[in-house]
Specification:
alpha/beta, Chitobiase, domain 2, TIM Barrel, 2 domains, 8-stranded parallel barrel, 6-stranded mixed beta sheet, 13 helices
């Protein structure tokens, strides 16, 4: 037997835990350089636990070895959905061996625990010497030594998400490789995507199946009287609203009721810097449209989850109307103010005015308490990448989403890095504003959904620093923004746009 042999002992090899194990195994191989034997907890022999360095993965329910360690008080118990308990310590079976444990509250917790070991432990901590005689940082020896051939530094983390639903919002036609896009979402512990389209893609079911295999929900977005002209020409009289309501139901039944998905998202007549269209109050009319249409759809499809993408531009002074939106509908607020992280300054550097942030922060506090704390509540953040509207064209009919060539993506990535260079500076400088905002929302509400607009940024090819900072802040908004920055900059998966 190899003197410093490592083995993996898992609870089950299916679903999200299969993905967790695959990711962990691949990352260990990058460092260990040798294939690792894997055993189910039900079949591993006791002598292997004593003679090998051991990596335990699973839940207390499906991995009896983990359950045994918890009962002996050698491991903390994760207490919330999606959470995990992870540790690296001296083996309980042999003081000369090491033991890594990832215990999830549920399957998602196992996956996210493995992701954090990969990003946080393998990314930096594993190179910190547990024995000064082994690693000499003055000669940089640590970075040229196989870390699995020596004793591993101790590490412990019990973690669960501050924000339950952590997502991405994007137009569908600028997802160029949906599988790689979703894979990178997993590496940031993101679990929902809103995909906005003119028409449902013909490969929609394949997209949803792949997303679900990674623990990601797919929400299909389409317009309820919204277009690139922002509804200036949309009729606001009662007959027009009723006709539009019927048209929306017909579109849902024709394109979306027949395909897989976890809900729908819509925008309507609110993305205007005026309170009125054709003499009609936008807030009043849009609530009428939303409630009539939602009642029709939910009357036929009562289990459907519906998100209302509401731009604050035209309704911020009319919240008494917005409060009347059907409580079954989740409001996802956008354009909440001119300050980071709600505005869109991508491609240029910004300086946040204190009064702008204070006003935006106060408005966010107000809308987060507009309805019952038990209602779902959402925010859309920006300051990353967006469409080139000078080149925009509507797609005329159904299309195939996320199946583009490597050559195309590499060429486009060169263009998008120019935008990410400015965006990453803005996020480094202003992350504290996002952290303060999200922390306050979490204090005020029980269930939250936060989405970031990351569109046409080649996220499928490179995980940018801003995207990783956004995701990590949603996972742990209690952490100081400077600490988050220091942690994320060492993630192996993160790419700086100017490198």
């Amino acid at each position: 037997m190899t003197e410093n042999r490592w083995i993996i002992v898992y609870g089950k090899y299916e679903g999200l835990e299969k993905k967790a194990l695959n990711l962990l195994n691949a990352s260990i191989f990058d460092l260990y350089k040798t294939p690792i034997s894997c055993f189910s907890a039900d079949e591993v022999e006791e002598y292997l636990l004593k003679e090998c360095n051991t990596i335990l993965v699973g839940t207390a329910e499906n991995n009896k070895i983990i359950d045994r360690i918890i009962k002996s008080s050698e491991l903390d118990v994760p207490k919330r959905a999606q959470g995990y308990s992870a540790s690296v310590k001296t083996s309980v079976w042999n003081k000369d061996k090491d033991m890594m444990v990832v215990c999830g509250y549920d399957d998602a917790g196992v996956l996210y625990g493995c992701v954090d070991i990969i990003n946080k432990y393998f990314g930096s901590i594993i190179y910190n010497p547990s024995d000064p005689k082994t690693y000499l940082f003055t000669s940089h020896k640590a970075f040229f030594t196989n870390p699995f051939t020596v004793r591993c530094p101790e590490w412990k983390q019990v973690s669960s998400p501050s924000v339950e639903t952590r997502g991405v919002w994007t137009w569908g036609h600028v997802i160029y490789d949906y599988k790689a896009f979703f894979e990178n979402m997993v590496l940031l512990k993101l679990n929902e995507i809103v995909i906005w389209n003119d028409y449902a893609p013909i490969n929609a079911n394949d997209i949803v199946d792949y997303a679900h295999s990674l623990g990601i929900k797919v929400i299909w977005g389409f317009a309820w009287g919204w277009d690139t002209n922002c509804n200036v020409s949309m009729g606001m009289d009662d007959d027009s609203v009723k006709k539009l309501s019927n048209d929306i139901l017909a579109k849902y039944e024709k394109e979306y009721a027949r395909i897989k998905g976890d809900g729908i998202y819509f925008q309507s007549a609110t993305e205007l810097d005026t309170e009125y269209i054709n003499g009609k109050l936008i807030a009043e009319t849009v609530v009428e449209l939303v409630n009539i249409t939602s009642d029709k759809i939910l009357g036929k499809y009562p289990d459907l989850s519906i998100q209302f993408g509401l731009h604050a531009n035209s309704v911020k002074n009319r919240l008494d109307y917005i409060k009347k939106v059907d409580p079954r509908i989740k409001i996802v607020w956008e354009n909440c103010g001119p300050a980071f992280p709600f505005a869109d300054h991508s491609g240029r550097n910004i300086t946040i005015k204190p009064e702008d942030f204070n006003n935006t922060f106060e408005f966010t506090e107000k809308i987060s308490q507009l309805r019952s704390v038990d209602d779902s509540f959402g925010l859309v953040l920006k300051e990353m990448t967006f469409l080139d509207w000078s080149q925009f064209e509507h797609i005329e009919k159904n299309f195939i989403l996320g199946e583009k060539t490597e050559r195309f993506m590499q060429d486009r990535l060169k263009e998008k890095r120019k935008i990410w260079r400015f965006s990453q500076v803005n996020w480094i400088e202003n992350l504290k504003y996002m952290q303060k905002t999200i922390k306050r929302v979490v204090e005020l509400r029980k269930e939250n959904n936060v989405q970031a607009v990351i569109e046409d940024g080649l996220f499928e090819k490179e995980i940018s620093l801003p995207a990783a900072l956004y995701a990590e802040t949603l996972w742990d908004c209690e952490k100081d923004s400077e600490e988050t920055l220091k942690t994320v900059c060492q993630f192996p998966c993160v790419k700086f746009a100017n490198i």
